[in-house]
Amino acid sequence: MDIRIASTRQEMGRQAAADIAAELRERLVRQSDVRVIFAAAPSQQEMLDALIREPGIDWARITAFHMDEYIGLPAGAAQRFGLWLRAAIFDRVAFKRVHLIEASGDAEAACRGYAKLLAEAPIDMVLLGVGVNGHLAFNDPPADLEDAEEVKVVGLDEACRQQQVDDGCFASLDDVPQRAITLTVPTLLGANRLFCCVPGARKQVAVRRMVHEEISGACPATALRRHPRCAVYLDRDSSAML
C-alpha cells in the first residue's frame, strides 16, 4: 500500500488531486475515454475541489459512476449521494456521461441495472474513502471480501449510520436510512487504480486497522492491501496511530 501523509487536510486533498489528475491525463493520451467511480463523503471534498482546478483534463471523455446510495430518502433529499456528487463535481465539469444510482424504486432492479452499466467496459479508477468502522462504500463489517455480486442491497450498521450524523449529514441517528445500495468490495478492487483519501482524527482507528490488521471482512479497508496500485492519502490527524 502506497501511503502518503500530508500535514493538513487541505494539503492531502491537493496531493491526491495532483496524482489523480496526472493519471487521468496519462490515460486520456492512450484511451478514447476513462471510467471513474467516485465516493460521496465529506472526506472527499478537499480532493474534489482541487481536482476540478487541475488543468488539462478532458472531462468530456470521462464517464462517472458512484459507489453507494441510500434507500428510502425522498428524491430531492440533500443527503442523497447522487445529489451530493452533483454539487461537488458532477455539475461543475462537463463529463461525457454521469450514471447515478436510482434507489427510489425497485432496489434489486436498480442493482442489476447498475451492475450492467459497470460491466460494459473496465473501470479505470476508483476515488474512495474509508469509514470509521473500516467500511468501503457501504460494505460494513463483517463484509464479504469475495462477494459474487457486483452491486447489492445492504443493511447499515449503527457505527456507519452514526458517522453520517457526526459528519453533519443528518440531525439524528433515527433520520439515517437503515438500508442502501452499494458496489461490493470485489467491484471496487476490480478497477485498475485506486486513490483513497482518509482525513480526520475520527478515522485514526480505522486507518491503524487498515494498515496493521489481518486482511478480513472484520475491517473491509484491509482489502485495499490486496490491490497492486492503491494510493492512500492521510493527514496528520488520521495517521496519528500509525
UniProtKB/TrEMBL annotation:
Molecular-function GO term, any one: identical protein binding
GO biological process: one example: N-acetylglucosamine catabolic process
SUPFAM superfamilies from the UniProt entry: NagB/RpiA/CoA transferase-like
Cellular compartments per GO CC: cytoplasm
InterPro entries for this protein: Glc/Gal-6P_isomerase, Glucosamine6P_isomerase, NagB/RpiA_transferase-like
Gene3D superfamilies linked: 3.40.50.1360
Domain Glucosamine/galactosamine-6-phosphate isomerase: 8-225
Protein's UniProt name: Glucosamine-6-phosphate deaminase
Organism: Edaphobacter acidisoli
